[in-house]
Design brief:
The protein is mainly beta. It has helices at about 5-20, 125, 235-245, and strands at about 35-40, 45, 55, 60-80, 85, 90-95, 105, 110-115, 115-120, 150-160, 165-175, 185-190, 195, 205-210, 230, 250-255. The protein has one domain (about 35-255).
Length: about 260
């Protein structure tokens, strides 16, 4: 067989193989920062699992069956330089019965940050804006009426200390005047760690959410005395002050190398 014919056969085979080879394009990430929320009892020392029993500061046992809250107005800050970066605002419903909701993926300008802030709840305008979708869809079970608005945060379950058939419900809402429970939380990253975001790299911030903080400091909220808080008012504002005080802690930060 002539050498030129063999060479042509080889070239044809190689070209055919090359035509069949294809490589999936690596999708570009639409974010560079992930906020991961994790439920705990007592700061970040005891992981919280719905359906398991825990003890609050008053030695009351309780078994949470629901734990969720709204978050929006996320900001990354460098308090030394005064640098503040705010991504496009969006509402998120963190629901610890649904793991798909406990991670927020956003895009932040690369920089060195030492603090994060975010708002717990739904602002007054959105409370009176009529039917809404996505996280603010009333079908999510976090809406009362157009007069009383959204439930900003919810912790519920059972407790032997509850005089209400062993159940407790903390549905915290109220958006105007003295009944306003919308809270902005601002937390430093663990000393001496900063969040050094780098171009093309993904960073992660782990945020612990403490259920025990709902009951204590600065206000004493005992299940035995107040097992049901399901309307705007003084008790709701006190619970909101409790969980915004010590209910959120930046556990750790990580940047892809």
């Amino acid at each position: 067989m002539p050498k030129i014919f063999i060479a042509l056969l080889l070239a044809t085979a190689i070209f055919s193989c090359q035509r069949e080879l294809h490589f999936d394009k690596v999708p570009e990430k639409d974010h560079n920062l992930i906020l991961k929320f994790k439920p705990v009892a007592t700061y970040d020392s005891v992981p919280l699992v719905l359906g398991k029993t825990y003890t609050n500061n008053f030695k009351e046992q309780y078994t949470p069956t629901g734990f969720k809250f709204y978050i929006h107005n996320i900001q990354l800050l460098n308090t030394d330089s005064g640098k503040i970066f705010t991504p496009k605002d969006k509402y998120y419903l963190i629901d610890f019965s649904d793991s798909t909701t406990t991670e927020i993926k956003i895009t932040i300008e690369p920089y060195v940050y030492n603090r994060i802030s975010f708002t717990i709840g739904v602002d007054s305008a959105r409370n009176v804006s009529g039917a809404q979708t996505d996280a603010l869809d009333p079908a999510n079970g976090m809406f009362w009426t157009w007069n009383t608005g959204y439930i900003m945060a919810k912790l519920e379950g059972t407790s032997p200390k509850s005089p209400q058939a062993g159940k407790f419900e903390f549905h915290i809402g109220g958006f105007s005047g003295a009944d306003n429970v919308i809270k902005t939380v601002s937390k430093l990253f663990p000393y001496p760690t900063n969040l050094e975001m780098k171009a093309g790299k993904e960073s992660v911030v782990y945020i612990a959410c403490d259920a025990n903080a709902w009951f204590f400091q600065p206000w004493d909220i005992k299940i035995a005395d107040n097992p049901v808080i399901t309307s705007p008012g003084l008790l709701a504002t006190q619970v909101a002050e409790n969980y915004s005080n010590k209910g959120f802690t930046v556990d750790s930060v990580y940047t892809e190398q």
